[in-house]
Amino acid sequence: MIAGNELNNREWASLVWLGVAMAAALWWTPTRQAVLSLIRTATISILGVLVVGLWVWTAGIAFAGAEIHLWTPDLLKDTAIWGIGPAFVLVYRLPRASTDPQFFRRVVLETVKLSVLVEFDVNLHVLGFVQEFVLLPVVTFVALLAQVAGTEQRYRLVQQVFDFILTGIGVALLAYVTITLITSWHQEDPWRDVRELALPIWLTLGAVPYIYGVSLLFNYQGAFSRLDWTTRKSAAVHRAKLVRRARLALLIELNVRSHQVGTFYDPWTTRLAEAHNLSEARRIVRQFRRGKPPVSP
User: Fold this and answer.
1) Are 200 and 87 spatial neighbours (Cβ–Cβ below 8 Å)?
2) What is the C-alpha separation between 120 and 128, in angstroms, rounded?
3) Cα–Cα distance between 91 and 97 in angstroms, integer?
């Protein structure tokens, strides 16, 4: 195995607990069918296809990074972890791109926020396997309790207690890692640490064009379907002309504005379908783009 790709104690503990949880879910009859159904759905659904597509895209990004010495084989494990975790989350959150105009801005900001640096620092040095094996479920359980307590105003004080416990654990781990780094700084490889810190950032930024392209494609597909539905009562020959004109107007005026394409609904689809020529159709889409109310013909 290439140096740098070995699993650390935290990752081994996570795998063991994941295996225990999966085995328990498959052993318990009420959850077995649900888990198997979820696995089947994930492997044959559009979500699975998009995740695989993002993995292929990521491989291309990593190859480009290797050309400029930003990615090296010792980062293979970290790349795989990113592909299983954050990449899947990106695809899962894809539907929000149609409803949140700030979606991609939020994605970019989340990759460079302070917590990313703190998380990286905490992961530079981990505890022994036993300590990690015990700490992982404890932290997970406390975090879940904090989330549940936060759903009710009457449990707000309880949530604050759990948040304080989580903060204390985080500070303790951060202090441990910082002290360890100071005492063993001569054994560190700063250039690899920097590349490891930068990896999830530039992988996420590199994935944005893929996510944006998929979002744009789906939004246009939805807009075109709504236009087809609006013109369903028109004569076949006339309808084909109306649909082509409406689609062309959308492509010209909205082009890569994914969020606006995704929010092009009635009465705009009806107004666009009623346009007499391409010039009028484009004018209607421009009115929508500028946020003006639709005007009856």
Assistant:
1) no
2) 18
3) 10
Q: Quote the Cα angle for 76-77-83, to 5°.
A: 90
Q: Which amino acid is at 185?
A: W
3-state secondary structure of 33: helix
Contact of 284 with 275, CB cutoff 8 Å: yes
How far apart CA 27 and CA 247 sit, in angstroms, is 52
The number of helices, as runs of H, and strands, as runs of E, in the chain is: 14, 0
How big is the chain, counted in residues? 297
Q: What tens digit of pLDDT does each residue of 87-144 get?
A: 888 888 887 877 777 888 787 777 766 545 556 555 667 778 888 888 888 888 888 8
The set of long-range contacts for 170-177, using a CB threshold of 8 Å and a minimum separation of 24, is 170/118, 170/122, 173/122, 174/118, 174/121, 174/122, 176/125, 176/127, 177/121, 177/122, 177/124, 177/125
Contact 126, 8 (CB under 8 A): yes
CA angle 23, 29, 32 (to 5 degrees): 55
Nearest-5° Cα angle at 250, 244 to 256: 130
pTM reported for the whole predicted model: 0.75
Secondary structure in 3-state letters for 71-85: CCHHHHHHHHHHHHC
E strand or H helix at 237: helix 236-254
User: Which tops the pLDDT comparison, 190 or 84?
Assistant: 84
Q: Provide the pLDDT confidence category of residue 275 given band limits of 50, 70 and 90.
A: confident
Query: CA 160 → CA 52, 138, 156, distances in Å?
Result: 40, 17, 6
